[in-house]
């Protein structure tokens, strides 16, 4: 067996790697500011519903597709539906992940810059204006391009050596540490004066300001935060042993993702209200709020730096899965060396990132349907391509893939009763496609 097709060393390793792919900027960075824009608790409630009844079944579906043939996304669909239009599903995943990386890597660059500043003690100070600091950083072309380049370089270095030993082992240590530091952050945030207003905003179900766009964002967030829709998890599950249970693994990843999203909201919104910040502040919310929290703590600079390092790792583990679907699709014929493929993809990604990197600076005047280049790319990926990808996967596994193979993969390695398979099958065949189509149409 080739190195690319090695199995994860354990079920825990697979869960942690999958959780690392899912728990990144989707749960930690994007969820708080999108929830802030769409009513807090109302968004949270819909996000949890979508994640459990749409995201989780979708995650199970991608796991089934990948492990059933033990091949990366493009080859998996080619094998399961040879010479048919369904082959486009895997290719859409490759294209979608590339577009996703063009703005994801920019945020990774922001985190890289902040981590470097934290290590050198340049963030927390008595008279710092963290909002202004963030605006200045992302508007400086050289700084933001350098941060993006370094973030992509970190991906290139790790992925050039493969993903099993480095990523799996590191995830087993650093993902639990991320949870621990999140809890510390939450405890400090909720004890701030005025924190109760933030908690009320986050846990109160006020739908007065909610609209069809908010529903679409909640659906897109459930896909984005679980890394489903672009078949990243098809590739990851292709490394999994046949003895492991796919539904229970998916449930573990989903549960961890929901918990992290809730912790992110509990860490952010109390501080937003305690410091009279705006909950609809957008992508910069986390970079403004975190320094405010840690500035109120003993050894705050140290804790902020440690958290940024862990946040950077969580962001990297997500980008690894996005890069991996592209790398494995190009490398599948074994005619090109992996390091060379990784370097080329890294360079192309950096070039493609330049417009989004500069959209808060020299290209701030560029307007695409009322959005910046960064926001327009985010919207295209999260709210259009991801739902389309999920719809194709739902229809594929329900109507095109061999039914006996699907059932066999669902039931392998577990003692779940048949009713759970029937419920999953019902959701994938009749409920999820209809919901995706309805929400998509109403958002247009």
Automatic annotation (TrEMBL):
Keyword Cytoplasm: no
Annotated keywords: Membrane, Transmembrane, Transmembrane helix, Transport
GO CC annotation: membrane
Subcellular localization(s) per the UniProt record: Membrane
Listed Pfam families: SNF
Membrane topology: Multi-pass membrane protein
Main location: membrane
Domain of life, source organism: Bacteria
Transmembrane residue ranges: 12-31, 43-65, 92-117, 137-161, 173-195, 215-236, 257-277, 297-320, 341-364, 384-402, 423-442
UniProt-listed InterPro entries: Na/ntran_symport, SNS_sf, YocR/YhdH-like
NCBIfam families given in the database record: Na_transp
Protein name: Sodium/neurotransmitter symporter family protein
């Amino acid at each position: 067996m080739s190195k690319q097709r090695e199995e994860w060393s354990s079920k825990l390793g697979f869960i942690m790697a999958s959780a690392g792919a899912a728990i990144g900027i989707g749960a930690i960075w994007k969820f708080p500011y999108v929830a802030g824009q769409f009513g807090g608790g109302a968004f949270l409630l819909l996000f949890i519903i979508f994640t459990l009844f749409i995201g989780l079944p979708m995650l199970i579906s991608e796991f089934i597709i990948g492990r059933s043939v033990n091949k990366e996304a493009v080859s998996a669909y080619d094998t399961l539906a040879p010479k048919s239009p369904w082959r486009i599903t895997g290719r859409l995943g490759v294209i979608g992940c590339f577009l996703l990386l063009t703005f994801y890597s920019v945020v990774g660059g922001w985190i890289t810059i902040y981590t470097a500043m934290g290590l050198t003690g340049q963030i927390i100070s008595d008279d710092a204006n963290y909002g202004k600091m963030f605006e200045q950083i992302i508007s400086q072309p050289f700084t933001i391009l350098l941060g993006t380049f370094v973030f992509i370089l970190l991906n290139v270095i790790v992925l050039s050596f493969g993903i099993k030993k480095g990523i799996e082992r590191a995830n087993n240590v650093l993902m639990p540490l991320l949870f621990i530091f999140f809890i510390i952050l939450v405890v400090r945030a909720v004890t701030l004066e005025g924190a109760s207003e933030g908690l009320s905003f986050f846990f109160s179900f006020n739908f007065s300001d909610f609209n069809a766009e908010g529903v679409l964002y909640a659906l897109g967030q459930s896909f984005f935060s679980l890394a489903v829709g672009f078949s990243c998890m098809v590739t990851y599950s292709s490394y999994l042993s046949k003895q492991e249970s796919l539904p229970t693994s998916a449930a573990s990843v989903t549960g961890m993702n929901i918990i992290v999203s809730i912790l992110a909201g509990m860490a952010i919104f109390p501080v937003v209200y305690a410091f009279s910040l705006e909950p609809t502040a957008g992508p910069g919310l986390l970079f403004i709020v975190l320094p405010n929290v840690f500035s109120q703590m003993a050894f705050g600079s140290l804790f902020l730096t440690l958290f940024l390092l862990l946040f950077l790792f969580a962001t990297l583990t997500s980008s690894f899965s996005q890069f991996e679907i592209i790398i494995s699709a190009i490398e599948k014929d074994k005619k090109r060396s992996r390091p060379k493929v990784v370097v080329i993809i890294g360079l192309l990604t950096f070039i493609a990132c330049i417009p989004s990197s500069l959209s808060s600076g020299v290209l701030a005047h560029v307007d695409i349907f009322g959005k910046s280049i960064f926001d327009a790319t985010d919207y295209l990926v999260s709210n259009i391509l991801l739902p389309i990808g999920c719809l194709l996967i739902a229809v594929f596994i329900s109507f095109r893939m061999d039914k006996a193979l699907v059932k066999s993969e669902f039931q392998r390695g577990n003692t779940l009763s048949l009713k759970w398979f029937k419920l999953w099958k019902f959701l994938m065949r009749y409920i999820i496609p209809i919901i995706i189509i309805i929400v998509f149409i109403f958002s247009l």
